[in-house]
């Protein structure tokens, strides 16, 4: 369907923003349209919004080939917004999920993280077992196939001794919370989720992966609202292993080496 069909309003202006379009409707509203396989993203946005915690663009309409959301106001990061973001992210995670690997309600099991396919199947059992089997192993194999990792380096990652920390319940994750998916106005907004049930430290590790304005302020506010388990900073590399392997699969380069360094 078209933006007009999904919103009930005519488009009077369009501006390309890479993989999405920013459209002006005839009632003056600014919206963002994304085309492609967007079912999982639409379900994820709704699931995150249902927690009434982080700021999420409203889903105005979605079908199998098009997602239309309200545009996020523009602005710049501030310490106050970062503090509020840390607290709201803690509240989002505390909203929980049915299981590790659980997709958003009504969403498909097949999703995407960047340009890589990602499967969400809920499982019983410890987080680390699910994480290694459903997140690390598939992309480890892909990274080797692409040539981003040697078979011997992949074996070193597989055999690395990792400490997952104390057991925690499944958290409601954004799932792809790198700095590019955090937009700032008078507050922080999150976009482009790969939402699922996972470990809350994964979202925090993603924020640190490529740098975020006022990151330490975000983390301090989060820790004050929902204290993190001792040693959480030592586990950042473990939680970054999955996105690094995704990047190694998609882009090659030094991401394979970075994945190896994360856990060895």
Automatic annotation (TrEMBL):
Domain of life from the UniProt record: Bacteria
InterPro entries on file: Fructo-/Ketosamine-3-kinase (IPR016477), Kinase-like_dom_sf (IPR011009)
Keyword Transferase: yes
Coiled coil: none
Pfam families (alphabetical): Fructosamin_kin
Keyword terms of this UniProt record: Kinase, Transferase
Any one GO molecular function term: kinase activity
Family membership noted in the UniProt record: Belongs to the fructosamine kinase family.
Protein known as: Fructosamine kinase family protein
Natural source organism: Actinomycetospora termitidis
